[in-house]
Structures are given as C-alpha cells and as structure tokens.
Amino acid sequence: MKKYISKFHYLTQDLPHRTHIEQTEIACTAGANWIQYRCFSKADEDLIREIHQIASICDDWGATLILTDHYHLLNQVDAQGVHIEDMHANFAAIREIISDEKTLGASANTLVDIQRINASGVVDYAGYGPFAVTKTKPNDYPLLGIDGYKKITDTMAELGIDLPLIAVGGINLEDTEALVNSGIYGIAVSAAVNSSDLPGKMIREFYKNIY
User: Fold this and answer.
1) How far, in Å, CA of 19 to CA of 123, rounded?
2) Which of 6, 67, 113, 132 is deepest in the core (most CB within 10 A)?
3) Residues 6 or more apart whose Cβ sits within 8 Å of residue 44
4) Rounded distance, CA 82 to CA 147, Å?
5) Would 1 be classed as within a structural domain?
6) In whole angstroms, how far apart are CA 187 and each of 6, 17, 194, 201?
7) Are 117 and 123 in contact (CB under 8 A)?
8) Does the global pTM surpass 0.85?
9) How many CA atoms lie within 13 A of 45 on its CB side?
10) How many domains does the chain have?
11) pLDDT tens-digit readout, 130-141
12) Is 166 within the bounds of a domain?
C-alpha cells in the first residue's frame, strides 16, 4: 500500500520551556502537516496521555502523527504510524504488529542500511543522516553534507531503489534549497525550529523553501 509521505517532517523534542503539546500546536498552526512525536523521557501511561492530546491537535489540523519507536502504543492511540530509529530492528515483525494501514519509517546512516530497509519490503520511507552536527540525536556517524545526499540518491537510482529519502540531522533553513536540489525526497527538522525564538515563522520559512 503506497502511503502519503510529506516532504517536511517536524520532530518534537524534550524542551525545558515548551511542552510537546505546545510544540505540536505551534507547528500545526504554522502549517506543518507531519508531526513526529519524539519523546523518551516518560513512562507509557504518561506517553499515552500526551499522545491523546497531540493526536487531537493533529486531527483538528489534518496533520499526520508519527510516533518515534513506540510502536507498541499504536493500538492505544490515534496515530498514523511509527518511525523506528533502531537500524537493526526487525521491520517485518514490526509491520506484522502495526498492520499495513500504518506508516512505517526507519532511520539509516549508510547505503547498507538503506538496502536492508528496502529489502524488507515493508518500510514506507527512510530518514537518512546526519546532514550536519546535531545535538537532538548525538552520534558518531560521518556527516553527509550535500555531496553525501547527491551520492546516495544517485546510487539508489542506479540500484533501482525507489524509497522516499528524508534528510535529517542538523539541517538549518539555509541548507534546504541545496538539499532539495540534491535529489532527496524531503527533510526532517527539529532543533532549527525548536530553538528558534519564532518557531511558527521558522516552519513557514521551511515550507517556502521546500514547496
């Protein structure tokens, strides 16, 4: 089943001054149509309570809600899918649990990751990074830069891999035009919006550069 995948993914994060619910409200009001709820600081009961509120906001604005990793909660909340950050996950088993109706995304850092994701036959898109240094999800993976995305999209075309590729990790507003021209499908952003004094305006600026 071919799923709709937005070209702009907004990721919430734990912030001292703004809740995930407030982040979602700001993003949806600014026009974001794809919200990825990324929270690892709460127990399941608290996650479910917060997701219910976030899902209600997304529903009001017609936005897609994706959970980061917590696929075991999908049958208890109104979310449209899940994004798995574990690159060694059993995607077929996760698909079996969440059903074909839900969107399944996966993280990748290398061509091998992308090939594995594609070979599973059950993943709808891949988040590929990091583009640049990121504090949202610290890691030791090589930074890809624009050339890294051009190379991977060319290689995917040569190998016949038709998988929407979302650039992620340390992306700022000034990077979007070059990224879009690199051949990737879309971008995912967190800190560039969440650390902005005017997050809503920042989201609108990203949309202008992408669409």
Assistant:
1) 30
2) 67
3) 70, 72, 73
4) 29
5) no
6) 9, 25, 15, 17
7) yes
8) yes
9) 0
10) 1
11) 998 776 666 678
12) yes
